[in-house]
Amino acid sequence: MGDIFARLPELGDGLAELYKDLHTHPELSFAEHRTAGVVAGRLRALGLEVTEGVGRTGVVGLLRNGDGPTVLLRADFDALPVEERTGLPYASTARGTDPDGNDVPVMHACGHDVHVTCLIGALDLLAGDRESWSGTVMAVFQPAEELGSGAQAMVDDRLFERFGTPDVVLGQHVAPAPAGWVGIHAGPAFAGSDGLRVTLYGKGGHGSRPETTIDPVVMAAATIMRLQTIVSREVAGGETAVVTVGSVHAGTKENIIPDEAELKLNIRSYTEPVRAKVLGAVERIVKAEAAAAGALKDPVIESLHGFPALVNDVTATARVESVLKATFGEDKVIDPGAVTGSEDVGVFATAAGVPLAYWLLGGIDPETYLKALQAGTVEQDIPANHSPLFAPVIEPTLGTGVKALVAVAFEWLSPHR
Amino acid sequence: MGDIFARLPELGDGLAELYKDLHTHPELSFAEHRTAGVVAGRLRALGLEVTEGVGRTGVVGLLRNGDGPTVLLRADFDALPVEERTGLPYASTARGTDPDGNDVPVMHACGHDVHVTCLIGALDLLAGDRESWSGTVMAVFQPAEELGSGAQAMVDDRLFERFGTPDVVLGQHVAPAPAGWVGIHAGPAFAGSDGLRVTLYGKGGHGSRPETTIDPVVMAAATIMRLQTIVSREVAGGETAVVTVGSVHAGTKENIIPDEAELKLNIRSYTEPVRAKVLGAVERIVKAEAAAAGALKDPVIESLHGFPALVNDVTATARVESVLKATFGEDKVIDPGAVTGSEDVGVFATAAGVPLAYWLLGGIDPETYLKALQAGTVEQDIPANHSPLFAPVIEPTLGTGVKALVAVAFEWLSPHR
Amino acid sequence: MGDIFARLPELGDGLAELYKDLHTHPELSFAEHRTAGVVAGRLRALGLEVTEGVGRTGVVGLLRNGDGPTVLLRADFDALPVEERTGLPYASTARGTDPDGNDVPVMHACGHDVHVTCLIGALDLLAGDRESWSGTVMAVFQPAEELGSGAQAMVDDRLFERFGTPDVVLGQHVAPAPAGWVGIHAGPAFAGSDGLRVTLYGKGGHGSRPETTIDPVVMAAATIMRLQTIVSREVAGGETAVVTVGSVHAGTKENIIPDEAELKLNIRSYTEPVRAKVLGAVERIVKAEAAAAGALKDPVIESLHGFPALVNDVTATARVESVLKATFGEDKVIDPGAVTGSEDVGVFATAAGVPLAYWLLGGIDPETYLKALQAGTVEQDIPANHSPLFAPVIEPTLGTGVKALVAVAFEWLSPHR
Amino acid sequence: MGDIFARLPELGDGLAELYKDLHTHPELSFAEHRTAGVVAGRLRALGLEVTEGVGRTGVVGLLRNGDGPTVLLRADFDALPVEERTGLPYASTARGTDPDGNDVPVMHACGHDVHVTCLIGALDLLAGDRESWSGTVMAVFQPAEELGSGAQAMVDDRLFERFGTPDVVLGQHVAPAPAGWVGIHAGPAFAGSDGLRVTLYGKGGHGSRPETTIDPVVMAAATIMRLQTIVSREVAGGETAVVTVGSVHAGTKENIIPDEAELKLNIRSYTEPVRAKVLGAVERIVKAEAAAAGALKDPVIESLHGFPALVNDVTATARVESVLKATFGEDKVIDPGAVTGSEDVGVFATAAGVPLAYWLLGGIDPETYLKALQAGTVEQDIPANHSPLFAPVIEPTLGTGVKALVAVAFEWLSPHR
């Protein structure tokens, strides 16, 4: 397998350029038109069969190389409505239109540009050395991971009926850990996630006459405070749940009490009983706080997304872990435990009925990270995914990501193993 | 004075058309370009000397008629970022750009279209019967009353240096009271108003990892709840203050904890000690709640507007009250006491150093109003100013407003009195 | 009337001693046994007909002096469960048993000892100069004013059937104003008061396992915060209401989540609509906050007391005001407006169907008061009624109180007027 | 080992009587005088060397039986200020005086009566069959576990200097699991616990004049609500912390705003970083909420207790687990994971520098438990420790607890193993 990596250094500059280009041009979920075009162009240049528009804006590339298993390698490629503040020369100033029709700044704040670049690098190496493996690589470039609905959209667009069912689903996510390190955890590895939109109905009026109104701003504040008690009082210490109100919007002017307030909630959990308990508590609290305000109309709770915990297959994970240790050394492969982040990559594995193995890829300059670790300031000093300051270092992040994908794919595709 | 009103019926339909046109085409503060054009055209048609662009978008019309006092008649003409829900055939579907650059719906939810229409009707009558009075009418069409800064803008644009100093400042505001009625109160009649923008600084991050963030949404909610205690605990029962959080905005997506939250506050008070106490308490609470959240940066509190209580001159008010009673009958003139609404018309009187008399004009269908009064449901059933349902009846509102302006102006202008 | 006051200086020391004795021996509502004994002894020594045990612990003294009107002079005589911190040589260290059976400190923190002393002084003067007046003085020493139920208890004990119906009900209350001053306000002068006990039902358990409980401590906290919004959002700026949670109790140990929490609320209002609105809002909020917590049982709301606003008769008040001005000088008689404090003395007047006039008596050293007034620090520096630091100065408080009672009684009793 | 259990059935009734007697006569921490007397009497009857008054009210019994290791068997014996509501014929109606001097109900709501009974039963068996083992059993009956300070008090009273250092510390705790089952977890098994008393300083006054006060009731409520955000926002999903406000007390009457409020907090955590973070956040929030209220004096935070997580020694735990499986069957021994309850038994092991193995003993009727488990209603239906309804079934609880202690002690004491 050593040979196939021989060409990695020469890819380096090209990958860095590709990465910077993607980073400068982020696009929101289901609006990844330019990104899809760039990806499709690259895949075609490498000789893959390319289909665009799978699940609205997704791209599928097939690299067929004789008999053997089919390995699905997945990279998600949408960005976030975050205003970049990294100060990088290739920082984004892009804007987009969010689902509510607002013009918003856009940034690759979750590092999906890393995922795309690494997968294209891996495909380049695999396409350039067909002697050393056989089978099929199904490269899936997925839209709208941030909405939690992109994987489902591709499955619903008959992904497996059209392109075949893989033997395993593989992928990786860049994380605030030292670049050069990788991490993988068997079993529930990423939390299930539910997104809710809550609309609270008050009764508007003049700001000087609150007694003629039912103030939705106070209703929203009381609701947000009470929602904190779900995690603090209703979830056992040994269980895990996160309830975040990521967005609250009400009103326009200081002296008009508005009619409504809107909250957007995100809930993370690892088990169905906890998930059900938290969702039930949200509904109970939201309704009761509206009643406390004397609301004339019940709040409306809508699901924005909902997907279960990502569960890494135990056997496939053991194989991947062993490959990663052989590739990068024992000390570079960690078990991060279950993380509270969420991922919809599991939707592919569940739909195909095959094992999933999904790992984390460090993206932070190792020296910086270790200094913060020693100082006990990782949380303050190392911007995490979704932060306006999230800025993976280009190397060794990209090189590690490319190597990891190729090495793991070989575990299934190489006849020598 | 009876003669001058003879022509009122024939104005009627024209005034109603003008009112509907203005109502259908509301414009936000300092963006009243079309409105200013309509007003200036009407004033020129009546033979007034017209100057546009006074205080950015204000219009001044001078109706000179020989020697005698100068009476300033004021009508404000901006609208509000409210989405009209009256269902009227002439309801607004207009949109505008708010000070933060957002595209928002616009509605004459405060009834300034009534003020403009009545003043134009009054000028029409006065211009058509120059025999019966002498002196000068200075018609001031003021922008941006809703920002609390339009009157000051006109004064700062050298209103009195350019057009002369009046002997009295007069005006009226439509209110949720029976049409055909008027109300006036001597002394402090409208509350002072302060508008504040509060920016709370948290630290953003992924919604699944609140422990790496300082959540500005929870900070905002805790602040809003604690702000309620100013009125409930810090202002004496016998004093009056209103603290409204009219707007709260933070975040974009459910799974991103934002960096900041923004509140807009409106504060009403009648006395300087209460005003100072409330403003001090707002600052204390906002800072302490940020500290409770562990904020790394103090909140920023900016003034959006600030003007003192409107104080009707005791002598001028007595004269106006007497005229109104003579014009409409004793039983149609009430003393509404001090209201918590605010008005910047006092800025003109203070700057000119002359008395102010400002009255309320009922705008609700009398039968509807009295039915609600008997049922004790005025607050629920009668939409007040700033409500998306605020809908003055055209008559007898407009007729009463025209008559009130002319009759009161005559008190100063007519030689017969 | 000058003659009758001639003996006031010689009473002085005796009154001061009586005051200190009462102050050192305060007793809780309906437990004023020693106080009743002291009062009865004094009245008998002055030659009055004395009846004890009227309305449980009340005392009635009749000073009959020929034909003429009957004037009811009322002093309440119970104390409060407050731990005195005045540091006075005659400070209380007394303890008593509260209605819940707890042993608590007791203090004359509301100044009822002043009321008793002044009334005994006034009776002394009146009894000593029977030449100058005729009629009957009905001295009513009332228990349990602090519970809001003592006046009703005396009425229910057939006060007027047994001792005759007065022509007027008179009385006074010491206040944090300069000693030597008095104040009176016609119309609604003291707020109506409602006392409520709210029991919130959670479900107890181990402090480490909140998920197995329904935490009544958090339920209580959320309820208290939401109750603040009644005054801040539901009562108009021009109306007056006060909602105080004076007591909250739940739990015993840090690591046991208790089953219940108990709140005690006090509500002040001047009008029935506001009172009804506030009481309705309390019930709505308390129930909804329990629902938000997932309580298995509705909260229970019990009335601890409830009496309407004290309304001074306009004519009687005018007579009293005129007497007070004549007695103390125009500059010593103020109109304090309506105060948010409550008083059940109106129960006597309403039950008897006669006018009420009730005034305030300054109790603070005038120099200290005026210094604080100039510094704008009255609220911080001058301890008010119910404070552990409330400490009226003995003179000129007592002398002024005695003179006021005698002078006002003469207004009805003296043939010379 | 079979022989030693032969006598267990004949102990049965006596143990049940002992258990009921202890249950009916619970005593608060450090007031276990009767309990200590009963224990000492039983131990002397079994022939142990008995010392009372170790660590105030603790009892140590030594059962010497030739050479061999010393095994410390520990039972804690204090009860809780909880009012029993089990309705059992042997329910407690006892009362005691809590640390604040209040008279309170007392109940064995944590099941320490089970611990004492089982240990006495085990000593009875061990004392009755000295042939089958050799070494020393050090029976430690510990006071004040509920205060978290009893174990330390015994160590500070020179426990090990006076009675020798054991080779292992063993013990058990009854839990809401099926009787007949036992559970043990290696590593951190019980949370560390901190108890805090927080005194909030407001400024009292009359309930009708909140503007003259700084309301400590509202301060307490805002603080309690904000404390919820520590667990909901500041502790990572994968970490464990519990912050409980078990007690809040302020005020006496509804119409007096008190000077102060007192909170008692309990904090559970498994690691020092989390513990430090939570304690820091409590201090930050408490201070800031006082500042938000305008408090004139900082709150005071006092430690009521503080002890680290209980960590079961991995090797000793493996030995115990193996013995329990051999004794009760594989299916009756579970790994409950780390629980959020706390225990100070680890203080003995740490002070002695020897391994600890501490296990859980099911106490609920198995049929009842399994029915609730199937219905998913364990939390609602099965009262847990500290509940007024906590009621372990006598058998098989006591028999299982006796057997577990003897079998595990034999693991160290029996030469046959």
UniProtKB/TrEMBL annotation, chains A, B, C, D:
Keyword NAD among UniProt keywords: no
Pfam families, sorted: M20_dimer, Peptidase_M20
Signal peptide: none
GO biological process: diaminopimelate biosynthetic process
A GO molecular-function annotation: N-acetyldiaminopimelate deacetylase activity
Domain of life (superkingdom): Bacteria
Manner of cofactor binding, per the entry note: The Mn(2+) ion enhances activity.
Name the record gives this protein: Hippurate hydrolase
Species: Nonomuraea soli
